[in-house]
Specification:
Vanillyl-alcohol Oxidase, Chain A, domain 3, eight-stranded antiparallel sheet, five-stranded antiparallel sheet, 14 helices, 19 strands, 25% strand, FAD-bd_PCMH-like_sf
Length: 433
């Protein structure tokens, strides 16, 4: 028996049985046995979700034994790997084959199966989330069967299983469509928030990958533009010293200290944010794509993120800023805004619409409920869909209104897991009993 806790400290489980299967056959046996005994089980990745989506009630399956690339075809870019493979290991493995993921989020601590199952995404107006890069997967269902799923084989399950919050079974293997390895030119600079909002579409459409961070109580946003370099341009990475100063000292160690100061002296937060927004000076460098996409995030926080129709994102940010100004509350963490192309995955937050993501954060020692509730109301007025792994209060009836294929997903769940072997409190909240 074991105790499990997620990275953020928002969820935990005690006294659970831990299984570590080393093959797909062992996963199949473990799932079938637990289900026949009436036990509830969950596959658990790295625990980077803030919600209870992966909390095991009785049995926890760790996929550490299925954590490597098994085949890689450089010509086609098709790569098959175990579902427990961490993104950092995957990125390094792909690089050894001169391949890369077309797009990534901003951390690499998750497992590939956990990342796609919760709808993890990066930014890019012409690119989808990580799940859109998956072209096939193997799913162990409650009776121990192994389903092979792709656009051609079990296409309905494939449409449901790529973002499934673990409610359909245990993903054991995935095949992803990678691309030839590429370099990105990163351009980071502070700009007035008004200028960023006024020109948001130009920024989003005019760059391969665009995002910005706005520091509440300031008029500044840190913009990040990442674009593929022309042929013949080589890498010119950030120097080790500059990288340590910007990404470790300022973004982690100093940021931790300023957040601790915010706990004791909340009245100083506006001044702290003004200093923070100016401390991150402009920089430009060229490096391997995954090194540009991913960064270290060591300060513990709480996060809520909503996907809204892209055409409404400026209104959402403006309304959120107005609420912050009225509230009198103080928020030391920046707000992050990203974009993604529409896709056809049933429970993807970008299903059927070009999407913008607004993510808000609060230091883990500060109260966040009032802030997150207000944000949920603002985003909800525009049909916002919460990230499955980040904090929200929505339930099944509200999701039915926001996802056109929600009932189709529930029908797949009824078919594959009629006795709810893969349920837990979170899946009962978002999908019903």
């Amino acid at each position: 028996m074991s105790t499990w806790r997620n990275w953020a400290g928002t969820e935990s489980a005690t006294g659970v049985e831990v299984l570590r299967p080393a093959s797909i056959d062992e996963v199949s046996v473990a799932v079938k046995t637990a289900a026949e005994q009436g036990k509830k089980l969950k596959a658990v990745g790295s625990g980077h979700s803030f919600t209870g989506c992966s909390v095991p009630e009785q049995v926890m399956i760790r996929l550490d034994g299925l954590a490597s690339i098994t085949t890689a075809d450089r010509e086609s870019g098709r790569v098959t790997l175990g579902a427990g493979t961490g993104l950092a290991k995957l990125n390094a493995g792909l690089a050894s084959f001169d391949l890369a993921m077309a797009n990534l989020g901003d951390i690499d601590k998750q497992t590939i199966s956990g990342a796609i199952s919760t709808g993890t995404h990066g930014t890019g107006a012409r690119l989808g989330g990580l799940a859109t890069q998956i072209v096939a997967l193997e799913l162990v269902t409650a009776d121990g069967s192994v389903l092979h799923c792709s656009a051609e084989e079990n296409p309905d399950v494939f449409a449901a299983a790529r973002v499934s919050v673990g409610a359909l079974g245990v993903i054991t293997s995935l095949t992803l469509q990678s691309v030839p390895a590429f370099l990105l030119r990163a351009q980071e600079m502070p700009l007035p928030l008004g200028e960023v909002l006024d020109s948001f579409d130009e920024f989003a459409d005019g760059n391969d990958h665009f995002e910005f961070y706005w520091f509440p109580h300031t008029d500044l946003a840190l913009t990040k533009r990442n674009n593929r370099v022309a042929a013949g341009v080589g890498a010119s990475p950030v120097s080790r010293l500059r990288g340590w100063i910007d990404d470790e000292l300022l973004s982690n160690r100093v940021f931790e200290l300023t957040n601790r100061l915010a706990v004791r002296r909340p009245g100083l937060v506006p001044r702290i944010n003004q200093l923070a927004s100016r401390a991150l000076s402009a920089r430009e460098y060229v490096d391997a794509s995954y090194k540009v996409f991913c960064s270290e995030r060591n300060v513990i926080f709480r996060e809520s993120e909503y996907a809204v129709p892209r055409e409404h994102v400026v209104e959402v940010v403006q309304q959120l800023r107005a609420w912050i100004d009225r509230s009198g509350e103080r928020f030391p963490f920046p707000i992050e805004v990203r974009v993604a192309a529409a896709d056809d995955i049933w429970l993807s937050t970008a299903y059927g619409r070009d999407t913008a993501y607004v993510a808000i954060h609060q230091y883990h020692r500060l109260e966040h409920d009032k802030y997150f509730d207000a944000f949920e109301q603002i985003a909800g007025a525009f049909g916002g869909r919460p990230h499955w792994g980040k904090l929200h209060t929505l339930a099944a009836d509200q999701f039915r209104d926001r996802y056109p294929r929600f009932d189709d997903f529930l029908a797949i769940r009824d078919r594959l897991d009629p006795h709810r072997a893969f349920t837990n409190p979170y899946t009962r909240q978002v999908f019903g009993p």
